[in-house]
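Section 5.1 Outputs to date
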Amino acid sequence: MAGMTSTAHLTRFFAGLLVCLLAFAPSGARAQSLIRDAEIERSLKELARPLITAAGLSPSRVRIMVINDSSLNAFVIDSRHVFLHSGLIMRMKEPAQLQAVIAHELAHIANGHLTQRALNLGAARSAGMMGLLLSAAAAAAGAPDAAAGIAMGSQQSALRVFLKHTRAEEASADQSALRFMAAAGVDPNAMVEVLNIFRGQEALSSGRRDPWASSHPLTTDRLRAVRGYAASAKPREGNDAASAYWFARTQAKMQGFLRNPNSVLRRVKKSDTSEIALLTKAVAYHRMPNRKLAYANIDALIAKRPKDPYYRELKGQILLENGEAAAAAQAYAQAVNLAPDQPLILAGYGRALLAQNTAESNRKALQVLEKARSRDSQDPRMLRDLAVAYARAGNNGMASLATAERYALSGRMRDAGTHATRAAGLLPRGTSGWNRAQDVIRASELAAKAKRN
């Protein structure tokens, strides 16, 4: 019946809360936020694809997400998402090392470790307990503020063990990951290299350990077993050149936006006109800021790869953040033509159209942003822009709904409930928008109840 929210639907909603706790603004990212960047997500998808296939999973159903955190960590909370900390990605020296971490986390999915653990917690099948589990996962991932927004109370500290793997699970995941790597043509010795990075972590106090070392116990026997398998493994032939390329793009983009631009530029020769060097310099000069050199390098990059939508998207971002909305919209439009269904690129295009703030650009922005939302509803920054587009179109009910969903995704459940209630009062009863508002209201009520308990 209209107005009734099923447990399964609410559980999916809570899962969405953790999938996108906070949006990533490339020009000014915050700690413990998700990095939402189309190019980085595409690069990680390409690195993970052969491993996902080798694990017997579907590449279209597993997403690799990045948390903006300098510590070394990676984890899974369900069968569809692998989370990597930015610090871990930038610490890896070669693609096989990053792929080893991804393979290990995929093994936890393929081996059913989290599924079994959830089944053991019988109450986890209820929507309320799922919210608490996700809150615990958020806290373990280094986002205590977001976790507090989803649920608060003594249950949280008890449930934080949800992500901690047993030694038996770790040994099982290692063996499976090594098989996945060999089948995907990735050198299993990279797993040994990764474990050696964490080898000294267990001797440190809990406050000084990186999270991965705390949640993935490392033992001498475990390291010995991995070394033995890696020494005897004969991996299939893999596409090392492609892996190196996507890994280089990932690191160039992340280092450019997350590290000191002067430090980044010192590592690149001014005369270097290779693709990765141009990408690195375009981002770093943009952040200095040095508009002239940022434009020169992004234009050279596009000339080198004119059919790459992510470089045109980057040009749109640089132009927009320099106040050139019309030129930015043109660059984003070119990116959309090359990748018409990429939601993050669509969201950027909508943002540039809104910045022009004409009747026509606002009308088109609403169309573009609605399309972006239909492909990825878990992007708070897009939802913020969508709310503005609805408000400019005079649709205050949908503007309040988009705002409510944005607050829910950032863990501000009380504010989410307020705006969802307002939306429900403005939208026709029984419509899709009204039903979505009911979902947010129910989630807000569950969060408030958990806080009281």
